Protein backbone atom coordinates (compact mmCIF):
# COMPACT_ATOMS: atom_id res chain seq x y z
CA UNK A 1 0.00 0.00 0.00
CA UNK A 2 1.53 3.36 -1.02
CA UNK A 3 1.61 6.45 1.16
CA UNK A 4 2.55 9.92 -0.10
CA UNK A 5 4.33 12.30 2.27
CA UNK A 6 4.16 16.06 1.83
CA UNK A 7 6.39 18.20 4.01
CA UNK A 8 8.80 20.85 2.80
CA UNK A 9 11.78 22.35 4.57
CA UNK A 10 14.70 21.00 6.54
CA UNK A 11 12.71 18.33 8.42
CA UNK A 12 11.34 16.63 5.28
CA UNK A 13 14.05 13.96 4.98
CA UNK A 14 13.95 13.26 8.75
CA UNK A 15 10.20 12.64 8.47
CA UNK A 16 10.56 10.43 5.39
CA UNK A 17 13.16 8.22 7.04
CA UNK A 18 11.20 7.93 10.28
CA UNK A 19 7.91 7.11 8.61
CA UNK A 20 9.56 4.49 6.43
CA UNK A 21 11.05 2.92 9.57
CA UNK A 22 7.75 3.06 11.44
CA UNK A 23 5.66 1.74 8.53
CA UNK A 24 7.76 -1.04 6.94
CA UNK A 25 4.65 -2.71 5.46
CA UNK A 26 3.76 0.52 3.57
CA UNK A 27 5.58 2.06 0.60
CA UNK A 28 6.15 5.64 1.84
CA UNK A 29 6.96 7.95 -1.09
CA UNK A 30 8.15 11.59 -1.14
CA UNK A 31 5.90 14.25 -2.68
CA UNK A 32 8.32 14.93 -5.54
CA UNK A 33 8.64 11.26 -6.50
CA UNK A 34 5.18 9.72 -6.06
CA UNK A 35 5.41 7.02 -8.75
CA UNK A 36 2.08 6.08 -10.31
CA UNK A 37 -0.47 8.43 -8.66
CA UNK A 38 -3.25 5.79 -8.71
CA UNK A 39 -1.17 3.59 -6.40
CA UNK A 40 -1.33 6.18 -3.60
CA UNK A 41 -4.01 5.34 -1.03
CA UNK A 42 -2.93 7.43 1.97
CA UNK A 43 -1.51 10.95 2.21
CA UNK A 44 0.43 12.34 5.18
CA UNK A 45 0.63 16.10 4.69
CA UNK A 46 1.46 19.52 6.08
CA UNK A 47 0.13 22.37 3.90
CA UNK A 48 0.02 20.55 0.54
CA UNK A 49 -0.10 22.92 -2.45
CA UNK A 50 -3.63 23.72 -3.68
CA UNK A 51 -4.77 21.06 -6.13
CA UNK A 52 -1.87 18.80 -5.15
CA UNK A 53 -3.92 15.95 -3.73
CA UNK A 54 -6.52 15.62 -6.49
CA UNK A 55 -4.16 13.65 -8.77
CA UNK A 56 -4.27 10.76 -6.25
CA UNK A 57 -7.55 9.35 -7.47
CA UNK A 58 -7.58 6.34 -5.09
CA UNK A 59 -6.97 8.31 -1.90
CA UNK A 60 -8.70 6.65 1.08
CA UNK A 61 -7.53 9.02 3.82
CA UNK A 62 -5.54 12.17 4.50
CA UNK A 63 -3.50 12.54 7.67
CA UNK A 64 -2.61 16.05 8.82
CA UNK A 65 0.85 16.38 10.35
CA UNK A 66 -0.69 18.61 12.97
CA UNK A 67 -3.57 18.98 15.38
CA UNK A 68 -5.15 21.53 13.07
CA UNK A 69 -6.63 20.60 9.70
CA UNK A 70 -7.31 24.09 8.33
CA UNK A 71 -4.22 23.86 6.10
CA UNK A 72 -5.66 20.72 4.47
CA UNK A 73 -9.19 22.15 4.11
CA UNK A 74 -7.70 25.29 2.54
CA UNK A 75 -7.23 23.39 -0.75
CA UNK A 76 -10.16 24.43 -2.99
CA UNK A 77 -9.69 21.23 -5.00
CA UNK A 78 -9.44 18.90 -2.02
CA UNK A 79 -10.86 15.51 -3.03
CA UNK A 80 -14.41 15.51 -1.64
CA UNK A 81 -15.44 13.14 1.12
CA UNK A 82 -11.98 11.73 1.86
CA UNK A 83 -11.66 11.21 5.65
CA UNK A 84 -9.14 13.44 7.42
CA UNK A 85 -7.23 12.36 10.53
CA UNK A 86 -5.43 14.87 12.72
CA UNK A 87 -2.34 14.14 14.81
CA UNK A 88 -2.39 14.38 18.57
CA UNK A 89 -0.61 12.65 21.43
CA UNK A 90 0.89 13.28 24.86
CA UNK A 91 4.00 15.03 23.51
CA UNK A 92 1.88 17.58 21.63
CA UNK A 93 -0.02 18.32 24.85
CA UNK A 94 3.15 18.50 26.93
CA UNK A 95 4.83 20.95 24.56
CA UNK A 96 1.81 23.24 24.30
CA UNK A 97 1.35 23.14 28.08
CA UNK A 98 5.01 24.19 28.53
CA UNK A 99 4.64 27.03 26.01
CA UNK A 100 1.42 28.40 27.46
CA UNK A 101 2.48 28.19 31.12
CA UNK A 102 5.86 29.75 30.27
CA UNK A 103 4.36 32.71 28.41
CA UNK A 104 1.47 33.30 30.82
CA UNK A 105 3.98 33.41 33.68
CA UNK A 106 6.27 35.70 31.67
CA UNK A 107 3.43 38.18 31.22
CA UNK A 108 2.03 37.74 34.74
CA UNK A 109 5.45 38.48 36.28
CA UNK A 110 6.03 41.36 33.78
CA UNK A 111 9.30 39.91 32.59
CA UNK A 112 9.38 42.07 29.42
CA UNK A 113 9.63 45.17 31.66
CA UNK A 114 12.37 43.62 33.81
CA UNK A 115 14.32 42.60 30.70
CA UNK A 116 13.96 46.10 29.26
CA UNK A 117 15.32 47.55 32.51
CA UNK A 118 18.49 45.45 32.52
CA UNK A 119 20.39 47.27 29.73
CA UNK A 120 19.57 50.53 31.59
CA UNK A 121 21.05 49.00 34.80
CA UNK A 122 17.77 49.85 36.43
CA UNK A 123 16.73 47.96 39.59
CA UNK A 124 13.05 47.73 38.64
CA UNK A 125 11.31 45.95 41.53
CA UNK A 126 7.81 45.21 40.32
CA UNK A 127 5.19 43.93 42.70
CA UNK A 128 2.71 41.59 41.04
CA UNK A 129 -0.53 40.25 42.38
CA UNK A 130 -0.35 36.56 43.20
CA UNK A 131 -1.55 34.19 40.47
CA UNK A 132 -4.93 33.65 42.08
CA UNK A 133 -5.67 37.33 41.51
CA UNK A 134 -4.73 37.15 37.83
CA UNK A 135 -7.51 36.20 35.45
CA UNK A 136 -6.35 34.12 32.47
CA UNK A 137 -8.82 33.33 29.69
CA UNK A 138 -8.32 30.39 27.33
CA UNK A 139 -10.23 30.46 24.04
CA UNK A 140 -10.83 26.88 22.93
CA UNK A 141 -11.25 24.14 25.52
CA UNK A 142 -10.49 21.16 23.29
CA UNK A 143 -7.56 18.79 23.42
CA UNK A 144 -4.94 21.55 23.84
CA UNK A 145 -6.95 24.41 25.35
CA UNK A 146 -8.57 22.17 27.96
CA UNK A 147 -5.22 20.77 29.00
CA UNK A 148 -3.60 24.23 29.20
CA UNK A 149 -6.51 25.72 31.15
CA UNK A 150 -6.21 22.88 33.66
CA UNK A 151 -2.42 23.34 33.94
CA UNK A 152 -2.82 27.11 34.51
CA UNK A 153 -5.38 26.44 37.23
CA UNK A 154 -2.91 24.06 38.89
CA UNK A 155 -0.29 26.86 38.89
CA UNK A 156 -2.85 28.92 40.80
CA UNK A 157 -4.30 31.29 38.18
CA UNK A 158 -7.94 32.33 38.13
CA UNK A 159 -8.78 30.60 34.85
CA UNK A 160 -11.79 30.92 32.58
CA UNK A 161 -12.25 29.02 29.34
CA UNK A 162 -14.47 29.61 26.35
CA UNK A 163 -15.70 27.03 23.87
CA UNK A 164 -18.44 26.58 21.26
CA UNK A 165 -20.47 24.11 23.32
CA UNK A 166 -20.56 23.98 27.14
CA UNK A 167 -17.64 22.16 28.80
CA UNK A 168 -16.85 21.27 32.38
CA UNK A 169 -13.27 21.37 33.68
CA UNK A 170 -12.14 21.17 37.28
CA UNK A 171 -10.81 24.50 38.56
CA UNK A 172 -11.85 26.39 35.40
CA UNK A 173 -14.84 28.70 34.91
CA UNK A 174 -16.25 27.33 31.67
CA UNK A 175 -18.19 29.65 29.38
CA UNK A 176 -19.56 28.95 25.92
CA UNK A 177 -20.90 30.56 22.82
CA UNK A 178 -21.45 34.11 21.67
CA UNK A 179 -23.77 34.79 24.63
CA UNK A 180 -20.90 34.26 27.11
CA UNK A 181 -18.13 35.96 25.15
CA UNK A 182 -18.60 39.38 26.72
CA UNK A 183 -18.49 37.92 30.25
CA UNK A 184 -15.43 35.84 29.32
CA UNK A 185 -13.52 38.82 27.91
CA UNK A 186 -14.41 41.54 30.39
CA UNK A 187 -12.23 40.14 33.21
CA UNK A 188 -9.52 38.42 31.11
CA UNK A 189 -6.12 40.02 31.75
CA UNK A 190 -4.10 37.44 29.81
CA UNK A 191 -5.86 35.87 26.81
CA UNK A 192 -4.61 32.60 25.30
CA UNK A 193 -5.96 31.61 21.89
CA UNK A 194 -6.20 27.87 21.20
CA UNK A 195 -9.16 27.84 18.83
CA UNK A 196 -9.14 25.93 15.55
CA UNK A 197 -9.20 28.06 12.40
CA UNK A 198 -12.70 27.89 10.92
CA UNK A 199 -14.94 30.40 9.14
CA UNK A 200 -16.41 31.26 12.58
CA UNK A 201 -13.04 31.96 14.22
CA UNK A 202 -11.05 33.57 11.39
CA UNK A 203 -10.18 37.15 12.40
CA UNK A 204 -11.64 36.73 15.91
CA UNK A 205 -8.64 38.50 17.48
CA UNK A 206 -9.76 41.88 16.20
CA UNK A 207 -10.32 45.42 17.46
CA UNK A 208 -13.84 44.47 18.54
CA UNK A 209 -12.46 41.73 20.81
CA UNK A 210 -9.47 43.76 22.07
CA UNK A 211 -11.77 46.58 23.13
CA UNK A 212 -13.86 44.20 25.24
CA UNK A 213 -10.80 43.16 27.30
CA UNK A 214 -9.72 45.22 30.32
CA UNK A 215 -7.34 48.02 29.30
CA UNK A 216 -3.72 46.80 29.37
CA UNK A 217 -4.57 43.10 28.82
CA UNK A 218 -2.11 40.85 27.00
CA UNK A 219 -2.65 38.19 24.37
CA UNK A 220 -0.93 34.93 23.44
CA UNK A 221 -1.78 33.49 20.03
CA UNK A 222 -0.63 29.88 19.74
CA UNK A 223 -3.33 28.72 17.32
CA UNK A 224 -3.28 30.18 13.80
CA UNK A 225 -2.08 33.47 12.31
CA UNK A 226 -5.39 34.00 10.52
CA UNK A 227 -7.18 34.30 13.87
CA UNK A 228 -5.48 37.68 14.27
CA UNK A 229 -6.22 40.91 12.43
CA UNK A 230 -2.63 42.13 12.49
CA UNK A 231 -3.31 45.84 11.91
CA UNK A 232 -5.92 45.80 14.71
CA UNK A 233 -3.32 44.42 17.10
CA UNK A 234 -0.74 47.06 16.11
CA UNK A 235 -3.36 49.74 16.66
CA UNK A 236 -4.45 48.26 20.04
CA UNK A 237 -0.78 48.17 21.15
CA UNK A 238 -0.33 51.81 20.09
CA UNK A 239 -3.47 52.82 21.99
CA UNK A 240 -2.38 50.98 25.15
CA UNK A 241 -5.48 48.80 25.01
CA UNK A 242 -3.21 45.76 24.65
CA UNK A 243 0.04 45.82 26.62
CA UNK A 244 1.89 42.80 25.25
CA UNK A 245 1.42 40.19 22.53
CA UNK A 246 3.13 36.81 22.30
CA UNK A 247 2.67 35.43 18.82
CA UNK A 248 3.67 31.97 17.61
CA UNK A 249 1.69 31.87 14.38
CA UNK A 250 1.32 34.32 11.50
CA UNK A 251 -0.55 34.95 8.27
CA UNK A 252 2.68 34.38 6.40
CA UNK A 253 5.22 31.88 7.75
CA UNK A 254 8.13 32.36 7.99
CA UNK A 255 7.26 35.91 9.11
CA UNK A 256 8.71 38.24 6.40
CA UNK A 257 11.91 40.05 7.55
CA UNK A 258 10.31 43.48 7.11
CA UNK A 259 7.22 42.69 9.18
CA UNK A 260 6.56 45.27 11.94
CA UNK A 261 6.11 42.53 14.58
CA UNK A 262 9.83 41.67 14.47
CA UNK A 263 11.04 44.81 16.19
CA UNK A 264 7.90 45.89 18.02
CA UNK A 265 8.89 46.41 21.69
CA UNK A 266 5.62 44.91 22.95
CA UNK A 267 5.58 41.84 20.69
CA UNK A 268 7.38 38.56 21.25
CA UNK A 269 7.68 36.53 18.05
CA UNK A 270 8.21 32.78 18.31
CA UNK A 271 8.58 30.82 15.03
CA UNK A 272 5.60 28.42 15.20
CA UNK A 273 7.29 26.30 17.83
CA UNK A 274 4.64 26.22 20.58
CA UNK A 275 4.06 22.55 19.93
CA UNK A 276 5.81 21.33 16.81
CA UNK A 277 5.15 17.71 15.98
CA UNK A 278 8.39 15.78 15.53
CA UNK A 279 8.84 12.60 13.48
CA UNK A 280 9.58 10.45 16.52
CA UNK A 281 6.46 11.03 18.67
CA UNK A 282 4.33 12.46 15.84
CA UNK A 283 5.45 9.72 13.45
CA UNK A 284 4.43 7.04 15.96
CA UNK A 285 0.99 8.66 16.39
CA UNK A 286 0.56 8.88 12.61
CA UNK A 287 1.65 5.26 12.09
CA UNK A 288 -0.79 4.05 14.76
CA UNK A 289 -3.67 6.04 13.22
CA UNK A 290 -2.83 4.82 9.71
CA UNK A 291 -2.82 1.19 10.81
CA UNK A 292 -6.13 1.61 12.70
CA UNK A 293 -7.72 3.23 9.67
CA UNK A 294 -6.52 0.58 7.24
CA UNK A 295 -7.67 -2.20 9.62
CA UNK A 296 -11.12 -0.58 9.78
CA UNK A 297 -10.76 0.09 13.52
CA UNK A 298 -12.09 3.28 15.18
CA UNK A 299 -9.68 6.22 14.85
CA UNK A 300 -10.26 8.72 17.70
CA UNK A 301 -8.39 11.43 15.79
CA UNK A 302 -10.74 11.19 12.81
CA UNK A 303 -12.09 14.68 12.14
CA UNK A 304 -15.80 15.40 12.04
CA UNK A 305 -15.84 17.12 8.66
CA UNK A 306 -19.34 18.49 9.20
CA UNK A 307 -18.09 20.32 12.30
CA UNK A 308 -14.98 21.53 10.42
CA UNK A 309 -12.34 21.02 13.15
P1 LIG B 1 -9.77 20.88 19.34
O1 LIG B 1 -9.50 19.72 20.23
O2 LIG B 1 -10.54 20.65 18.09
O3 LIG B 1 -10.53 21.98 20.24
C1 LIG B 1 -11.05 23.14 19.69
C2 LIG B 1 -11.76 23.95 20.77
O4 LIG B 1 -12.17 25.19 20.21
C3 LIG B 1 -13.02 23.26 21.31
O5 LIG B 1 -13.19 23.53 22.68
C4 LIG B 1 -14.12 23.94 20.52
O6 LIG B 1 -15.39 23.97 21.15
C5 LIG B 1 -13.58 25.35 20.42
N1 LIG B 1 -14.21 26.06 19.30
C6 LIG B 1 -14.27 25.72 17.99
N2 LIG B 1 -14.96 26.63 17.29
C7 LIG B 1 -15.38 27.56 18.18
C8 LIG B 1 -16.15 28.73 18.08
N3 LIG B 1 -16.67 29.14 16.91
N4 LIG B 1 -16.39 29.45 19.20
C9 LIG B 1 -15.92 29.04 20.40
N5 LIG B 1 -15.16 27.92 20.57
C10 LIG B 1 -14.90 27.20 19.47
O7 LIG B 1 -8.42 21.59 18.91
P2 LIG B 1 -6.97 21.43 19.60
O8 LIG B 1 -6.38 20.12 19.30
O9 LIG B 1 -7.08 21.85 21.01
O10 LIG B 1 -6.13 22.50 18.75
C11 LIG B 1 -6.51 23.85 18.65
C12 LIG B 1 -5.67 24.53 17.59
O11 LIG B 1 -4.35 24.76 18.07
C13 LIG B 1 -5.44 23.74 16.30
O12 LIG B 1 -6.54 23.80 15.45
C14 LIG B 1 -4.23 24.44 15.72
O13 LIG B 1 -4.67 25.52 14.92
C15 LIG B 1 -3.50 25.00 16.94
N6 LIG B 1 -2.19 24.36 17.17
C16 LIG B 1 -1.08 25.14 17.16
C17 LIG B 1 0.16 24.59 17.43
C18 LIG B 1 1.40 25.42 17.47
O14 LIG B 1 2.51 24.86 17.53
N7 LIG B 1 1.30 26.73 17.48
C19 LIG B 1 0.27 23.21 17.68
C20 LIG B 1 -0.89 22.45 17.68
C21 LIG B 1 -2.13 23.03 17.41
P3 LIG B 1 -16.16 22.62 21.54
O15 LIG B 1 -15.43 22.14 22.79
O16 LIG B 1 -17.53 23.07 21.84
O17 LIG B 1 -16.02 21.70 20.38
C1 LIG C 1 0.54 22.86 14.50
O1 LIG C 1 0.40 24.00 14.26
C2 LIG C 1 -0.51 21.89 14.56
O2 LIG C 1 -1.62 22.14 14.06
O3 LIG C 1 -0.25 20.79 15.12
Give the spatial strand order of the biggest sheet.
8-7-6-9-10-11-12
- Provide the list of bound ligands, each named once: NADP nicotinamide-adenine-dinucleotide phosphate, glyoxylic acid
CATH superfamily of the largest domain: NAD(P)-binding Rossmann-like Domain
Mind telling me the CATH class of the largest domain? Alpha Beta
Strand content: 15-25%
CATH architecture of the largest domain, by name, is 3-Layer(aba) Sandwich
**How many discrete structural domains?**
2
Order of helices and strands: EHEEEHEHHEHEEHEHEHEEH
Which helices and strands, and how do they pair?
Blueprint: E1 2-6, H1 12-22, E2 27-30, E3 40-45, E4 61-64, H2 70-73, E5 84-85, H3 90-108, H4 111-117, E6 135-139, H5 143-155, E7 158-163, E8 172-176, H6 177-186, E9 190-193, H7 207-210, E10 217-221, H8 230-239, E11 242-247, E12 267-269, H9 281-294
Parallel strand pairs: 1-2, 1-3, 3-4, 4-5, 6-7, 6-9, 7-8, 9-10, 10-11, 11-12
The structure holds NADP nicotinamide-adenine-dinucleotide phosphate and glyoxylic acid (GLV).
Amino acid sequence: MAVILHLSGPRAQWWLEHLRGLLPEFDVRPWDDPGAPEEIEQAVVWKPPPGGLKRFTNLACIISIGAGIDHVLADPELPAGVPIIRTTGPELLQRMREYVVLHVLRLHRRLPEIEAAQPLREWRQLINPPADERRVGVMGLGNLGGDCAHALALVGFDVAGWSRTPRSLEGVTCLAGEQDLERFLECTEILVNLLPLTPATRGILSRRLFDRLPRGASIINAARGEHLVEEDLLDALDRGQIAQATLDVFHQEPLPPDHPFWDHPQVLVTPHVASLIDPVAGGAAIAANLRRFVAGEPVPDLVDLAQGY
